[in-house]
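Hey,
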Amino acid sequence: MDLLARLRQGLGATRELLSEKLEAREWQIDAASLEDALVAADVGIEAAEALVREFESARGKGQIPGGGELAWLAASIENSLRGVERVTPRGEPHVVLVVGVNGTGKTTSVAKLAAQAVAAGRRPLLVAADTFRAAAVEQLQLWGERLGVPVVAHSPGADPGAVVFDALSAARSRGLTDVLIDTAGRLHTKHNLMAEIEKVQRICARAVPGAPHEVLLVLDANTGCNGVNQVREFRVHAGVTGVVLTKLDGTAKGGVVLAVARQLGVPVRWVGVGETAEDLLPFEAGSFARALLEGLT
């Protein structure tokens, strides 16, 4: 399947919810039904209200033809998401720090990012900096064997900063192109653990100029707009530059993408719509808007 088809499939539950909420009045959608649908899809109150105000303004100016509400909404969503798209300059090697709370799929996401790098002809390195969970190290090592990608790991309980330093030294000496760092899950409210992330960032910067080049927060789509608080806190304490939204295929809360973009201005970089490495898709605003709304009847 191509990107659009995979997104349509992954957004199936969200599409179904929107279809149910917007089925009235033969698509002559009014402001109340639109706001209800957006809130139900976890776009968030703030973003939903802003979109509804824009909808009412456009309709009042005659900019939305009868029956053209969905086309207007798709264009508005695409414009909102394009507003936070950014091109990230690549480092040499390109260092990506992956953070998030427990249970969001960080380790699997790191491995899938490595698979994407291999598919693109690059030479990645996996870094097992989650030294608190032996299972996380083992999981990453299994992925490394499967992908043919080297893994840097220390014994359980080791200093994550030491693991990262050794990994970056190895990457530079071996001419590897991507360094993908899996960190321990941590609540954004635990300030000592957030301080540890800041330490790892300092080590990255000392070892590789400009590193980390990306700080990706892995967010479980099932958390919906409650995940906005995670993004807000991790942005403050970890300098998050983008979001990896996982488990999108198992929830009707796909609207959280818009909440993150409109409320915080943080781009969604990747979306997970299944279990395989191929199911981690690069985020593209136009494809996402079309997959969400095209063909609703």
